[in-house]
Amino acid sequence: MAARKANPRPTGARGGTSTPARKAASRPAGAPAPAPRHSEVDFPPLTAEAARARGWDQVDFVYVSGDAYVDHPSFGAAIIVRLLESKGFKVGVIAQPDWTDDASVTVFGEPRLGFLVSAGNMDSMVNHYTVAKRRRHDDAYTPGGVGGRRPNHAAVVYGNLIRRTYKHAPIILGGIEASLRRLAHYDYWSDALKRSILLDSGADLVSYGMGERSVVAIAEALDAGLAVSDLTFIPGTVFRTSSLDHVVDYELLPSWDELSADRRAFAASFAAQYANSDPLTGRRLVEPYPHGVYVVQNPPSEPLTTAEMDAVYRLPFTRAWHPSYDEAGGVPALAEVKFSLVSNRGCYGECAFCALTFHQGRIVQARSHESLLEEARALTDDPDFKGYIHDVGGPTADFRGPACADQLRRGACPGKRCLAPEPCRRLEVTHADYVALLRELRALPGVKRVFVRSGIRFDYVMADPDPTFLRELVAHHVSGQLKVAPEHVSRRVLDVMGKPPHAVYEAFAAAFDEENRRAGKRQFLVPYLMSSHPGCTLADAVELAEFCRDMGHNPEQVQDFYPTPGSMATAMYYTGLDPRTMEPVYVPRSPHEKALQRALIQYRNPANHDLVREALRRAHREDLIGYGPKCLVRPEKADKGKKEGAGKAGKGAGKAKTAGRKAGKEPGRPGAPAPRRADDRGGRPSRDAGPRAANRKGRGPAPKANGHKGGIRKQGK
Ligand code: SF4
């Protein structure tokens, strides 16, 4: 990333520590944390007037985003805009344009070099719809948290919107939506295969994965006078062409016609894409379309070095939403990350339901301690900081380096996972660096506690012979509950998911309990569980329900598998095949079977009892219907009688319920054990709501956008 002359900013204030903040005291409970007040001149211009105030007649780039503009490194738009500014480019931002009005993208006129377009920190369809395809009404990335400010398939809509007015301006798509839809992909919401987003959006290029290198390369090439049609050589990009004469060293993927005709071809194509997602070994991929059109994916960008990552996070972010959003109450997604630190990116965990590998890759890149300490010190200067750093993490909090030395020499092994079903013997297992970092952070003046809220890989913890990390995690970095993601208990399902055997989770749970005893603490382990993942039959779901029964866990928030673009499990969902082996995999698809699986996990809820009985009968597990201590549900008659009795008994029934709870038993079910370690009070937050819920690896989703999990709604670790 060569440096150009830095773009002078009207004010050079960094971090906003010199400006007064709104007081938090009068904030209603649950309201987003207020951002420090900043002047508009501290931000990239969002209006033509703001651009003119900088003396700009024309901007170099217009960045069109489906999110409100939040100037914080957890938001992809901020990283790209600030990075281009640092290279001397003038960038105007159009946040959440009205897609029904062509004039909404003409705010700055035609940019000198091009439009950069992103749907936002999350795929717009994941943002807009639940897994049941119900419309969400809220939107953490919009001022006031209201929904409806961005279109479905936002990157496609924005691309066409721009193209209607600017016939020849280069349009470059980026962000998670474009990245995971860069080649033909399955779209769950329309239940259909879709073409590369490049073709449907009218754009010229897609910058996929973490965009810093490719966006700067594109900007510099355009600035040097190259036509966008000449930009066929930049790693981390996708382009279209009508001739393969000058495309070298490529692998031909199945054509669109083949993909449309045969799901097996899609599974094979996805396997090839996955195998070529490593920057060291990935080849150029070509996907042919009708009428002589080819979509070409160049190999992935090289990961950033530690020094380069540090430089990105040192850019002059105000760490605040744009002041024009103050009146609406600000942008809720900021509250989630405002006092959190992104310490790494990339993940070699490779959970099948998580698209992170497909976006950020398997090579873990980490910031230096100095960089993180510098950011933490800036946090302590923030008037709203109360002494608590909410998170120090990334896709997987406890990964701080590459899986093994070989990974950096010859790329990650294409046909092998680093951690599952058991850790590779070459895997370098150490938490020493992370432990040292956490110690340094909690020793900072002004810091009371440092929490770890990003997921940890408990199998990686258990593979570490040194207990120091778990010991210090329990003693210092858990706030009452540690959420981990075993996701399931059935060996068959765990194998498909890429998770370790259940015994590893049990060993971790025992070690967690032991460390709590040692620390004199009473903290709970909350397991994330997932229903209806490919590979999960009703028999497997019954096994999971029995686990919930035996541990006294009553999960109120169960994540149904969500087939989001770009994950291995989504390819399984669409094709019924495991792309890694091309073997058939069972897929629960019908809403009713999904309801049965979900009801089994939440079998204690009386509203689920009919479904539970049906599921148990279908799975030939009638032995679990009855009155015994192992039974999940009573027979219909007893339930019916209970309902009628409850109706007649009125207040008396309520008293009986209370008495049952006091005795440590679940009302209506004899012999239910008291909660052992999981939160039986429904304390687990939904992974299907809020900014952190994704990408996360999926979590979370989380607004960790371009610098993090890329707004993938989190589906566990
Ligand atoms: S050798 Fe093992 S640890 Fe290294 S990349 Fe391959 S699977 Fe991962």
From TrEMBL:
<keyword id="KW-0411">Iron-sulfur</keyword>
<protein>
    <submittedName>
        <fullName>YgiQ family radical SAM protein</fullName>
    </submittedName>
</protein>
<dbReference type="InterPro" id="IPR024560">
    <property type="entry name" value="UPF0313_C"/>
</dbReference>
<feature type="compositionally biased region" description="Low complexity">
    <location>
        <begin position="20"/>
        <end position="32"/>
    </location>
</feature>
<feature type="region of interest" description="Disordered">
    <location>
        <begin position="636"/>
        <end position="717"/>
    </location>
</feature>
<dbReference type="InterPro" id="IPR058240">
    <property type="entry name" value="rSAM_sf"/>
</dbReference>
<keyword id="KW-0479">Metal-binding</keyword>
<dbReference type="Pfam" id="PF08497">
    <property type="entry name" value="Radical_SAM_N"/>
</dbReference>
<keyword id="KW-0408">Iron</keyword>
<dbReference type="InterPro" id="IPR006638">
    <property type="entry name" value="Elp3/MiaA/NifB-like_rSAM"/>
</dbReference>
<dbReference type="InterPro" id="IPR022946">
    <property type="entry name" value="UPF0313"/>
</dbReference>
<feature type="compositionally biased region" description="Basic residues">
    <location>
        <begin position="706"/>
        <end position="717"/>
    </location>
</feature>
<comment type="similarity">
    <text>Belongs to the UPF0313 family.</text>
</comment>
<dbReference type="Pfam" id="PF11842">
    <property type="entry name" value="DUF3362"/>
</dbReference>
<feature type="domain" description="Radical SAM core">
    <location>
        <begin position="333"/>
        <end position="604"/>
    </location>
</feature>
<feature type="binding site">
    <location>
        <position position="354"/>
    </location>
    <ligand>
        <name>[4Fe-4S] cluster</name>
    </ligand>
</feature>
<dbReference type="InterPro" id="IPR023404">
    <property type="entry name" value="rSAM_horseshoe"/>
</dbReference>
<dbReference type="InterPro" id="IPR007197">
    <property type="entry name" value="rSAM"/>
</dbReference>
<keyword id="KW-0949">S-adenosyl-L-methionine</keyword>
<feature type="region of interest" description="Disordered">
    <location>
        <begin position="1"/>
        <end position="42"/>
    </location>
</feature>
<feature type="binding site">
    <location>
        <position position="347"/>
    </location>
    <ligand>
        <name>[4Fe-4S] cluster</name>
    </ligand>
</feature>
<keyword id="KW-0004">4Fe-4S</keyword>
<feature type="compositionally biased region" description="Basic and acidic residues">
    <location>
        <begin position="636"/>
        <end position="646"/>
    </location>
</feature>
<dbReference type="InterPro" id="IPR013704">
    <property type="entry name" value="UPF0313_N"/>
</dbReference>
<feature type="binding site">
    <location>
        <position position="351"/>
    </location>
    <ligand>
        <name>[4Fe-4S] cluster</name>
    </ligand>
</feature>
<feature type="compositionally biased region" description="Basic and acidic residues">
    <location>
        <begin position="676"/>
        <end position="690"/>
    </location>
</feature>
